[in-house]
Inverse folding.
């Protein structure tokens, strides 16, 4: 047992002393005045009043929200591209968990049919009201054979416009000058990961991902991006930017804006701040569950989106386009895709951690939008409910990774500076393949 303690001790020594003993590669990257800046607290939307409100004009989408809309690099070999929810729902019926018809399967579904509660007739003739919580958009086609609507549409080359794939923007006032811009990205299908060549596992029909850009007095301060129920938070200045011409009411102006970049992973559409391989199981143990991102087609969601202002209760559509499709679909608490297939369905498979087809996800308003933290919720081990915004982007690993500089990786400053490589590998093992790095990275990233 002694070597364990020795290893822990060595690790702590390495973790604690090396960064300070060495040249600090981060000198100059931080802006000193940033540290001194003390910003006022955010206010939960339910507690806002006229004096603390940041958005004075009711229902207004500020221009800075559009100027800082993230650009999304989709994966180069992606098969399931974004799509339009208004078109998507026409391929579905709404059923309850027992498979009863909630909506009439003889009529085409529209977004107006998605609502908070349903009054429907059970098989035995009883009429009843149910909440949408336990309902499922249930595909009329066999989704296992990739009907065309399941594939979505690629962005147009050059502009990044997806004509049949509007993003969904929800703006929330967080008081004291703070404003949150939630960008939702909808894909008709989530293709899960392969584990050691087998899979894919955890597939589902319908896939909602989102990012949050948090502004203080019109200046972007933070960005958060979703990945597998969790996500990652960054200071806005940390993420990569792309120069674009500013648009005003759909028209290009000669002004240049620096837009943040996020990367959408192959199949799962989980969002990351860099290209490469991203482990999303227990940190770096074996990396069997990985996401892959690269610089595939670039999607510009600011060219086509449905926009709303939400105050925690009421939703205000931003234009006639949103009024036409109605807002009831935002209150729909059901699943945006089929229920997990039963075990005896020929399309279903099981592996020790996951089914092949699982339940479709819930929609945008189920993502804790009134949150004060950047994170929507916390993992069980995160009992102190921390959600630190990283100062440096987390680099991807593997073949697609772009190792043009060495900073910012987990253990990056520690391990990447270790040479020769065999010694670095040794250190990786000594740090339990990076578990200690992960913990350190969590607090220092
Ligand atoms: C807040 O402002 C609105 C319009 O600007 C006004 O109608 C309302 O009475 C004000 N509420 C309070 C509590 O002052
Ligand atoms: C749902 O409605 C369709 C068409 O009316 C009918 O054929 C089917 O049996 C119904 N399903 C259930 C579970 O009631
Ligand atoms: C019909 O089924 C529901 C739920 O299974 C039950 O609560 C209700 O009592 C039944 N109604 C009749 C008339 O049997
Ligand atoms: C169902 O809800 C409607 C309106 O929300 C209400 O008028 C009706 O009485 C309810 N019916 C039952 C059986 O609860
Ligand atoms: C699967 O099993 C259920 C009972 O558990 C049965 O009702 C159903 O018919 C079965 N389906 C198939 C496709 O065998």
């Amino acid at each position: 047992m002694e070597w364990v303690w020795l290893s822990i001790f060595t690790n702590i020594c390495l973790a604690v002393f090396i960064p300070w003993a060495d040249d600090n590669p981060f000198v100059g990257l931080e802006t000193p005045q940033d540290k001194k800046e003390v910003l006022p607290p955010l206010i939960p939307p339910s507690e806002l009043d006229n004096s603390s409100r940041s958005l004075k004009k009711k229902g207004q989408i500020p221009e800075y929200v559009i100027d800082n809309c993230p650009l999304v690099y989709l994966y180069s070999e992606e098969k399931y591209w974004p799509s339009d929810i208004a078109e998507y729902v026409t391929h579905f019926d709404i059923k309850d968990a027992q498979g009863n018809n909630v909506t009439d399967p003889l009529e085409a579904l529209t977004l107006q049919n998605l609502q908070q509660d349903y009054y429907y007739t059970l098989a035995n003739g009883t009429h009843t009201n149910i909440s949408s919580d336990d309902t499922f958009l249930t595909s009329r086609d066999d989704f296992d054979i990739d009907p065309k609507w399941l594939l979505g549409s690629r962005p147009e080359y050059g502009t990044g416009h997806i004509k049949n794939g509007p993003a969904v923007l929800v703006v929330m006032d967080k008081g004291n000058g703070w404003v949150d811009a939630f960008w939702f990205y909808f894909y008709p299908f989530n293709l899960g990961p392969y584990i050691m060549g087998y899979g894919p596992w955890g597939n589902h029909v319908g896939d909602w991902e989102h990012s949050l850009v948090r502004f203080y007095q019109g200046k972007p301060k933070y960005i958060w991006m979703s990945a597998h129920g969790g996500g990652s938070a960054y200071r806005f200045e940390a993420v990569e930017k792309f120069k674009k011409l500013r648009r005003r009411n759909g028209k290009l102006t000669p002004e240049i804006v620096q837009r943040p970049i996020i990367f959408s992973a192959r199949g799962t559409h989980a969002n990351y701040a860099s290209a490469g391989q991203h482990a999303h199981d227990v940190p770096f143990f074996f990396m069997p569950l990985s996401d892959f991102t690269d610089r595939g087609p670039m999607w510009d969601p600011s060219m086509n989106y449905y926009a709303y202002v939400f105050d925690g209760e009421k939703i205000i559509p931003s234009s006639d386009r949103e009024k036409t499709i109605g807002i009831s679909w935002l209150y729909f608490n059901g699943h945006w895709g089929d229920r997990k297939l039963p075990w005896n369905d020929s399309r279903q498979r099981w592996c020790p951690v996951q089914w092949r087809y699982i339940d479709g996800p819930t929609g945008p308003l189920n993502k804790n939008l009134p949150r004060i933290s950047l994170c929507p919720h916390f993992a069980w081990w995160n009992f102190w409910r921390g959600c630190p915004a990283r100062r440096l982007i987390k680099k991807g690993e593997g073949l697609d990774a772009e190792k043009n500089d060495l900073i910012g990786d987990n253990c990056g400053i520690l391990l990447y500076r270790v040479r020769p490589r065999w010694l670095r590998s040794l250190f990786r093992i000594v740090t339990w393949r990076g578990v200690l790095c992960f913990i350190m990275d969590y607090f220092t990233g």
